[in-house]
Write a structure and sequence with these properties.
Blueprint (H helix, E strand, L loop, with lengths): L5 H8 L1 H22 L32 H36 L2 H14 L4 H12 L3 H28 L2 H8 L4 H38 L10 H8 L7 H29 L1 H12 L7
Helix pairs in contact: 1-10, 2-3, 2-10, 3-4, 3-6, 3-8, 4-6, 5-6, 6-8, 7-8, 8-9, 8-10, 9-10
């Protein structure tokens, strides 16, 4: 068990991994806390307090309706976590299924899957989301499903060649010769060895899911107006950008930090779970000539 969890120590030792872990945990804690408590009701309209500057009791100020911006950001974190986890789950299921079908099945099945992936990957994620929203209406589930499909296909495209390469490794051939079924071989040997590539793609997909939700909500295709969302809040506040520029900074900063944290967490996880990267960096550092003063 200690050996299996050693990658957690390596992840925390990396600056990128530490930053990503802190950001992701902070967003998750804020989302959970907002279920139980926020400084004010996020949807409470208080006209006398409209456009209050940052201070007490409104730490980040209020908007044009007198709603507390900090409370809106805390409630919007729930939407962000929901979209990131939902899109990640859909992308994981679809990506692993397509990758296994494209790497472990007969030749004609692999070719069909490869053509299907090439066709689906030609459509941008936001375009798919907007097309689905035009038919079914804007909602968070549309964002989750469309982003999950888009990045599930991308995960399959990247993971499938890695599976094919590992499939011809000596340890996989030995496992098959020992009597393991294809499913057992995939679970015990193939998927763990493509985990670093998969994790990076998944974290990047979750980061773009946050951006996609914010962008679609900004355009009116994402979260409904009754549900707090960082993108929706940014859309409402940007109307008053010239008069109250500071109010726009907070939702934009929340989106930026979250996406940056997810991307850096993915980079840290890739290095922590792939020992060959750390060995190569250590070897390169040991052969770096010292600078003579």
């Amino acid at each position: 068990m200690i050996a299996r969890l050693s990658w957690l120590r390596r992840l925390w030792a990396l600056p990128t991994g530490r930053f990503g872990v802190i950001v992701v945990i902070a967003i998750g804690v804020i989302a959970v806390v907002s279920l139980l408590w926020t400084p004010f009701d996020p949807q409470r309209v208080n006209i006398p307090a409209r456009w209050s500057p940052p201070g007490w009791p409104h730490v980040l100020g209020t908007d044009a309706s007198g709603r507390d911006i900090l409370s809106l950001l805390m409630a919007g974190a729930r939407t962000t976590v929901l979209v990131a986890l939902g899109a990640g789950a859909v992308a994981t299921l679809l990506g692993i299924a397509l990758a296994c079908l494209g790497a472990l099945t007969r030749r004609w099945t692999r070719e069909i899957v490869a053509v299907l992936v090439d066709i689906l990957i030609a459509f941008p994620v936001l375009l798919i989301a907007m097309m689905i929203s035009a038919v079914w209406g804007g909602s968070l589930w549309v964002v989750v499903i469309s982003v999950g499909i888009g990045f599930g296909v991308n995960i399959a495209r990247v993971t499938r060649p890695e599976l094919r390469r590992i499939l011809h490794s000596d340890f996989v051939l030995a496992a098959r010769a020992s009597g393991l079924t294809p499913a057992q071989t995939a679970v015990r040997h193939l998927l763990p060895n493509v985990a670093p590539v998969f994790i990076v793609q998944l974290s990047w997909g979750m980061a773009v899911a946050v951006l996609a939700e914010a962008g679609l909500s900004y355009l009116g295709f994402g979260a409904p107006t009754t549900q707090p969302s960082w993108g929706l809040l940014l859309s409402e506040l940007q109307t008053y950008l010239t008069a109250h520029p500071l109010s726009v900074v907070w939702p934009g900063l929340a989106i930026t930090i979250t996406v940056l944290g997810l991307n850096m967490l993915g980079d840290g996880l890739r290095e922590a779970t792939d020992p060959t990267l750390s060995r190569r960096r250590s070897a390169a550092a040991s052969h770096t000539p010292a600078v003579v003063a």
